[in-house]
Amino acid sequence: MSAFAGQLQSVLSPAGSAAGSIASLSWLLFVGAALIFAGVMGLLAWAVLRRATQPVRPRLWIIGGGVVFPLAVLTSLYAYSNLQTPGWLAQPPAGALIVGITAHMWWWEVRYRDPASGQDVTLANELHLPLDRPVWLGLSSPDVIHSFWVPALAGKMDMVPGRVNHLLVEARQAGVYRGQCAEYCGEQHARMALHVVAQAPAAFDAWLAAQARPAAAPTGPSAPLIERGRQAFLAQRCNACHSVRGVAEQGRLGPDLTHVGSRLYLGAGTLPNQAGSMAHWIANTQAIKPGARMPSSKDMDSATLSALAAYLEQLR
Ligand code: CUA
């Protein structure tokens, strides 16, 4: 699927303004450290190979190499990194898009304000951003400390229970970027990924408008199967933890599934959302992601499982 092509999780492939500063600082450190290392090795070679009659002035080397040189290098690095790093803002800049992100063990809840209705729209595990617009992320957690990190966009920011931290990001290049929880948070810390889709503003607006709509009623030849799946969703009590807007809206413990079929991945970056993934995930959750809060539905009969998966896959 083309959506999976070219997704990057690299500090050295920046696609956002803050990540750009981090990348140029990193290169400066790599190159500077390499030059200093080469210089020190050169001096070492000279010290070993020099003839004993050549004079050495220890005071010059100790004061010059041990005090003046490091002071000059570290002071200029400090000044340069201060120029590169934007100051911390207490308020979102004008025109910024505001998005709330809550880290859970082990998935991401994402909240947008729908400009049409003024209502919050709750989504999961996928963040869409309009290109070239500042986005102010409000980051929190209800359980343990997690850390938000999308290397292509910006540095890390911890997500701490009881407080809201902020991170300003701005995507400059369209693409899909992988993010990863960067603070050890328990058994499935490693499978706590999120995907960021940076897209043109018009495409972003259309996406958000679609995500804000409640689940559509099934139509077409597969409608009876999907209706069976919808009945199974309620009968199996999936809605105790998961919401589908327009169908069952009380579930708050797990990801909102209103448009789960539109997402790139299932289980917070665990499985690509392809044909067969949904049924596999539902039947084998604990084998795929041991410790996840969702039980495996191993004993569900295959007809019910197929109908349930068909229902969830068409929630786009
Ligand atoms: Cu969440 Cu590590």
Structure description:
This protein has 316 residues and is α+β, with helices and mostly antiparallel strands. It folds into three domains: 17-84; 97-212, Cupredoxins -  blue copper proteins (Immunoglobulin-like), CATH 2.60.40.420; 223-313, Immunoglobulin-like, CATH 2.60.40. It has helices spanning 17-49, 58-84, 201-212, 223-235, 277-288, 302-313, and strands spanning 97-104, 107-113, 120-124, 126-130, 135-140, 146-148, 157-159, 165-169, 175-180, 193-199, 265-266, 271-272. The two termini are 16 Å apart. The model is unreliable at 1-5 (pLDDT under 50). Bound molecules: dinuclear copper ion. Residues 103, 106, 146, 181, 183-185, 189, 192 line the site of dinuclear copper ion (CUA).
What is the helix content?
A: 25-40%
Quaternary structure state of the chains depicted: single chain
Which consecutive residue ranges, at least 5 long each, have pLDDT under 50? 1-5
Distance between the termini: 16 Å
Radius of gyration: 26 Å
Looking at the overall shape, the CATH architecture of the largest domain is Sandwich
Key attributes of the depicted protein:
3-stranded mixed beta sheet; 5-stranded mixed beta sheet; 316 residues; 3 domains; Immunoglobulin-like; binds dinuclear copper ion; 6 helices; single chain; disordered N terminus; alpha+beta
